[in-house]
């Protein structure tokens, strides 16, 4: 009985030692589990914080994207308006350019016509001037001949007058 009692007591001590060992392991595991739970809790809070920041960032990005899209659309509209204005101004200037070009061609034709007319007029005047010069020269020559003849005739008349006068004196 003593042997059985000792044996059973040995088994109880072994069982208590084993229970003590398991209890220590359970406490260690419980402490580790507590650390893991705390770490998990911190990770969950961090994840919630990150999710909140992500949500805020996503909302900010959507607002920024919307504003950027609106700004881009406004700038695009402004550019289209400026392009339309420049296009119509270009058409007006092109039409004005064509008109000025046409006027230039008309003026060049008119200038050439006037130049030709001037040249003809100059030639006509030159011919008239030459003709009048020749007529004048001819008339001057005729007048000089007439003056010469009249002088000769005057000399002859003086001579005749002198002779008549001489004869008259002789007769007296």
TrEMBL record:
Cellular component terms per the entry's GO annotation: Golgi membrane
Alphabetical keyword list: Coiled coil
PANTHER family: GOLGI INTEGRAL MEMBRANE PROTEIN 4, GOLGI INTEGRAL MEMBRANE PROTEIN 4-LIKE
Gene behind this protein: Golim4_1
Coiled coil stretches, renumbered: 5-60, 90-117
Keyword set includes Transmembrane: no
Organism superkingdom: Eukaryota
Official protein name in the record: GOLI4 protein
């Amino acid at each position: 009985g003593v042997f059985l009692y000792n044996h059973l007591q040995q088994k109880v001590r072994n069982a208590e030692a084993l229970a003590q060992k398991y209890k220590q392991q359970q406490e260690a595991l419980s402490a580790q589990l507590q650390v893991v739970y705390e770490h998990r809790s911190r990770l969950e809070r961090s994840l919630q914080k990150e999710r909140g920041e992500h949500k805020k960032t996503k909302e900010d990005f959507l607002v920024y994207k919307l504003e950027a899209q609106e700004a881009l659309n406004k700038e695009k509209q402004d550019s289209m308006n400026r392009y339309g204005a420049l296009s119509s101004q270009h058409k007006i200037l092109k039409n004005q350019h064509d008109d000025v070009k046409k006027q230039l061609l008309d003026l060049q034709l008119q200038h050439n016509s006037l130049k030709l007319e001037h040249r003809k007029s100059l030639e006509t005047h030159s011919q008239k001037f030459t003709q009048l010069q020749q007529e004048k020269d001819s008339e001057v020559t005729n007048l000089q001949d007439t003056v010469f003849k009249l002088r000769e005739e005057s000399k002859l008349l003086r001579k005749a007058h002198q002779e008549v006068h001489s004869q008259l004196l002789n007769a007296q």
